[in-house]
Amino acid sequence: MEKKRFYITTPIYYPSDKLHIGHTYCTVATDAMARYKRLQGYDVMFLTGTDEHGQKIETKAQEAGVTPKQFVDNIVEGPKGVKDLWKLMNVSYDRFIRTTDEYHVESVQKIFKKMYEKGDIYKGKYKGKYCTPCESFWTESQLKDGCCPDCGRPVVDAEEEAYFFRLSKYADRVRDLLENTDFLQPRSRVNEMIHNFIDPGLEDLCVSRTSFSWGIPVDFDSKHVVYVWLDALFNYTTALGFLNETYSDYDKFWPADVHFVGKEIVRFHSIIWPAMLMSMDMPLPKHVYGHGWLLLDGGKMSKSKGNVVDPYVLAERYSADALRFFLLRTFPFGTDGNFSNELLINTINVDLANDLGNLLSRTTAMADKYFGGTLSEAQAEGDEDAELIAMASALRDKYEAQMEKYQMQNALSEVFNVIARANKYIDETAPWVLAKDEATKPRLARVLYNLAETLRICGTLLLPFIPDTCTKIFEQIGADADLTTWEKAAAFGVLSKTATLHKGENIFPRIDAAKEIAELEELENAQKAKAQAAVAPAIEVEPQTTEDVDFDTFCKSDFRAVKVKACEAVAKSKKLLRFTLDDGTGTDRQILSGIHKWYEPEALVGKTLVAIVNLPPRKMMGLDSNGMLLSAVHTENGEEALNLIMVDDKIPAGAKLC
Ligand code: ME8
Fold first, then answer.
1. Residues 6+ positions from 407 with CB-CB distance below 8 Å
2. Which CATH number fits the domain that encloses residue 483?
3. Between these two residues, 534 and 652, which has the higher pLDDT value?
4. Residue of 14 and 529 predicted with greater confidence
5. Taken in order 360, 363, 364, 369, is the CA torsion positive or negative?
6. Which is the closest atom of ligand 1 to the Cα of 292?
7. Is residue 605 classed as helix, strand or coil in its secondary structure?
8. Count of domains in the chain?
9. Which of 73-77, 122-126, 593-597 has the highest mean pLDDT?
10. What is the Cα–Cα distance from 184 to 614, expressed in whole angstroms?
């Protein structure tokens, strides 16, 4: 009989920097699902890869003094690069796509042309906002406090001739897909998409660029390169051979069963991607699952801050299995989680060293000690065995129910409940007492047999998570490969009653938490210092304007020293601060200023600032602003930096500056 098929993907990573623990999280989760489906007997295609075009890569390569291709080659194929990391983490992908692969380029060109010929891509003029780090276009209405709604960084004005995709045409079908099917999971993400993007109205999407060249050229209009997201999203199909001859798995595996993606790219996968597939008359993937982020100190990891966690360091120190397990056991897949070294070491010590490790070592050590390894014929089950056997027998189905919902942490909890029950069972049955009397030896054999069976079942179900460790477990309990299958994970009593066990190496030695945490902190501080040195502030100031202003015009501007009497954040605005100022007139002056990103309001009370006071009043968020505070603006490491002009406190409120 032909096997059932399962196609799962990770996002394809930007090789603009080395990957960190957040990227590892998603890939390891995908790997666990792929291994789980293989265990169930599916014919699995697990795709991962790298998304190598776009302005960000072009700029990074320029900075590094190499070509974009050399730059990405190094990060993808080079030492400790993307592929090395997946090898270290035991990631069992079936295919790795690079968007610079020729077959992909060829397919994307054909796709672009098809959509153009259909009339779903047309030429127009792009005017709007562009977030360079995210490679995303935004309309004014989509910005949050004037900044990129995804990353919160400033956007720049952009205007150029461009091709557009008729996203608006598919708005109703996409809404229906999101609202009335289980396409996008978890469900909370649906509300976000509908509320933030569909309800305000979908606008056509700019899908080509002319201002840089590192991309796939539009073959019928070569000054344009294809927008990196169109190029990237279609990887899921080109890697199967869609519109190319390199592979021939499209009919076999498309549509995908699930795309695992981080929450900030759910929009691309649940709105733009299905709309493009609709345009191409292609079937839609069955599910998109938007997982949460791993945070560090409550914030997003950022290479430039040096606060990224290096999976290499952790996997080399504690093993790939320990890291894989930690990531999937600790953080619910659909929500954000806070990474910490304490949590990592605690999870290894409690779950792996104590619960699982002890269960294995106690069971095998007792088999060695009391039976020389080979169990004698066991007695029939007793009442004391019933609960453990019932739990172990029911485990596979409970685990499956969680895995089918991509709730890996819950599936692992089910397994560890049984492991905890088995440890308790050792205390209840007290094998060391049974061992004292020849007459209770058959009972002792039954106890150890039950423990070995529990380990076999738990080990089988842990295979997707900690594959290397499970091999060691099976070897120590004498379970051959044909006893560790999905089918046999639902049956208790499969091991031979006279199985031979032996105590092997400790699978997870206990970690000295205090010592390790101190060492990790030291390593991290060194890494932070290095990152900060590497990004020694690249300061840019705006070029001077050459346009002259006549003296009389200049003199019309009324600059005054003002003292901050009160300052507070404006409700519902991330940017605005409301200043109550003494301007020397005896009446308070109110000015609103979008500087919350740089200043906490309470820090400004009492300061003497400079304001231009004869500007016409402006309304902002329903409040009057009478004038403007002066500040100095420059760019630092690509981000806007702002400093209010503060003058000597001896200068009285209202003093005129000229
Ligand atoms: O988005 N925690 O690539 P990317 C959890 N090329 N996940 C994280 C994370 C964190 N701290 N940091 C990053 C791209 N990720 C595109 C994808 S797919 C057609 C194109 C996740 O390298 C992030 O959420 O910036 C995303 O899903 C993935 O890593 C790749 O991010």
1. 332, 333
2. 1.10.730.10
3. 652
4. 14
5. positive
6. 5
7. coil
8. 2
9. 73-77
10. 53
- 463, 490, 517: which is the final residue of a domain? 490
Q: Is residue 406 part of a domain?
A: yes
Mutate to test the pocket of ligand 1, among 8, 9, 26, 98 (most ligand atoms within 8 A of CB): 26
**Ligand 1: which residues within 6 Å by Cβ?**
11-14, 22-23, 25-26, 51, 232-233, 235, 261-262, 264-265, 293-294, 301
Q: Across-strand partners of 9?
A: 47, 259
Looking at residue 140, its pLDDT comes to: 81
The full length of the chain comes to 658
Q: What is the pLDDT of residues 307-317, one digit of tens each?
A: 778 899 999 99
Nearest CA, atom 30, ligand 1: 13
Of the residues 23, 100, 266, 291, which should be mutated to test ligand 1's pocket, given the most ligand atoms within 8 Å of the CB?
A: 23
- Residue 412 pLDDT exceeds 60: yes
Confidence band of 553 (pLDDT split at 50, 70, 90): confident
Domain that includes residue 386, residue range: 339-490
371 domain residue, yes or no: yes
Kindly state whether residues 481 and 582 are assigned to the same domain.
no
Ligand 1: atom nearest CA of 20 is 12
pLDDT bucket at 525, cuts 50 / 70 / 90: confident
Q: Quick one: pLDDT band at residue 66, thresholds 50, 70, 90?
A: very high
Same domain, 354 and 453: yes
- pLDDT at position 203 is 93
CA-nearest residue for atom 22, ligand 1, is 13
Is 188 a domain residue? no
CATH of the domain at 565: 2.40.50.140
Residue 243 CA to ligand 1 center (angstroms) comes to 26
Where is the domain boundary, 490, 513, 530? 490
In tens, the pLDDT along 149-192 reads 888 889 988 887 999 999 999 999 999 999 999 999 999 999 99
In our burial notation (b when 16+ CB lie closer than 10 A, e otherwise), range 335-363 reads eebebbbeebbbbbbebbbbbbbbbbbbb
389 and 483 part of one domain = yes
462 plus 367 within the same structural domain: yes
Instruction: Out of 10, 13, 263, give the residue to mutate to test ligand 1, the one with the largest number of ligand atoms within 8 Å of its CB.
Output: 13
Same domain, 563 and 450: no
pTM of this prediction?
0.80
Structure confidence by residue, pLDDT tens digits, 457-473: 999 999 999 999 999 99
What pLDDT sits at residue 422? 98
For residue 586, count other CB atoms closer than 10 A to its CB: 8
Neighbours of 298 (CB within 10 A): 7
23 alpha carbon – ligand 1 mean position (Å): 6
Instruction: Taking residues 109-118, report their average pLDDT.
Output: 98
Q: Tell me the CA–centroid distance for residue 475 and ligand 1, in Å.
A: 37
Residues 617, 620, 621: CA angle, nearest 5 degrees? 145
Residue 379 in any domain: the answer is: yes
Residues 446 and 579 in one domain: no
Residue 63 three-state SS = helix
CA of 19 to the centre of ligand 1 (A): 10
Same domain, 481 and 352: yes
- Separation of alpha carbons 447 and 270, rounded Å: 52
Same domain, 350 and 457: yes
Instruction: Give the pLDDT of residue 241.
Output: 98
Q: Which residue has the least CA distance to atom 26 on ligand 1?
A: 262
